[in-house]
Design brief:
Blueprint (H helix, E strand, L loop, with lengths): L9 H25 L4 H9 L4 E2 H8 L3 H13 L3 E6 L2 E9 L1 H12 L2 H8 L3 H18 L4
Antiparallel strand pairs: 1-3, 2-3
Helix pairs in contact: 2-4, 3-4
Length: 145
């Protein structure tokens, strides 16, 4: 094989990661809309791995706690989440995904066809390599202010 491949710059890598993230978010939002959810409602539902205080959700969604109240109200009205008092501090309300909420967000993720199709371009080894690389990047990118 002839030709040289140059190492991509950080800017090129970041641009590609941003483009992939944007495409994935658009697919997520479009799929959520087919389930009658706004992108923010779906994002909140996707964050609920267990009981989470309203303030914690506001931090994750990077919004004011009063905005989270409205989002949770609408999800609760649909039976996708419920509020329950925190066992250690009854003044704090935790948000918990209901069985229907867990199933709904699972369906949204499963039906993200554009994202799934893009990943189908990779074979098993490439997917494993990509996963390992992204896992190495995750700690440095999560929970940054």
């Amino acid at each position: 094989m002839t030709g040289t491949t140059s190492t991509p710059t950080k800017a090129q890598l970041l641009e590609l990661v941003a483009a992939l993230g944007t495409a994935q978010w658009q697919d997520f939002a479009a799929t959520a809309a087919r389930h009658g959810l706004t992108s923010v409602q779906a994002k909140l539902l996707a964050q609920l791995k267990g009981p989470m205080p309203m303030r914690g959700l506001a931090t994750l969604l990077v919004c004011d706690a009063s905005n989270v109240t409205g989002i949770v109200d609408r999800l609760e009205a649909r039976g996708l989440v419920r509020r329950e008092p925190d066992p250690s501090d009854r003044r704090v309300k935790n948000v918990v995904a209901t069985e229907e909420g867990v199933e709904t967000i699972r369906r949204v993720r499963d039906e993200m066809q554009a994202t799934h199709s893009a990943l189908d371009a990779l074979d098993e080894d490439e997917r494993s390599t990509l996963y390992r690389l992204l896992e190495r990047l995750r700690p440095g990118l999560e929970h940054r202010a």
